[in-house]
Design brief:
By secondary structure, this protein is an all-alpha fold. It has 7 helices and no strands.
C-alpha cells in the first residue's frame, strides 16, 4: 500500500518553478536570450531561475507571464510557492505550515 501512495504522490507532484519555466520555454522552442530580453533581465539570471538557483522578482515573473500569456495570479502564486520552498526547504515545520494555510480558522472572540 505504501508504494501506491508514493507512486500517486510522484504523479501529482507540482514541478518546481524553474523547471516549469524551462519546459514552457523549450516547448515553444525559444532560446533563453529571447525570454530574458522580454523580461528585461540578464540571460544568466533566467538560466539560474530555471535551475532553481535564483528566484525571479515579481516584476520579472509578470513580464514573462505576459510574454507567455499566462495568468498573472498563477505566475505569482507559483513564484511565491518557490520562494517558500527555497526559504523553508530544510525546516521540518514547513509542511505543517502549509497545512495550516488550508485550514479554516475559528471565528475570533467566540468560545469553542
Amino acid at each position: 500500500m505504501a508504494s501506491t501512495k508514493n507512486s500517486n504522490k510522484a504523479k501529482t507532484a507540482v514541478p518546481r518553478f524553474g523547471e516549469w519555466l524551462r519546459v514552457m520555454r523549450e516547448d515553444r522552442k525559444l532560446p533563453l536570450r529571447a525570454v530574458a530580453a522580454e523580461a528585461e533581465m540578464d540571460q544568466a539570471h533566467l538560466s539560474k531561475a530555471e535551475l532553481s538557483q535564483r528566484l525571479l522578482t515579481a516584476e520579472q515573473a509578470a513580464a514573462i507571464a505576459r510574454f507567455f500569456k499566462i495568468n498573472l495570479t498563477e505566475m505569482e502564486a507559483r513564484r511565491i510557492a518557490e520562494k517558500f520552498r527555497m526559504e523553508h526547504a530544510d525546516n521540518p515545520a514547513a509542511s505543517q505550515a502549509v497545512q495550516l494555510l488550508h485550514e479554516t480558522p475559528p471565528p475570533y472572540g467566540k468560545a469553542r
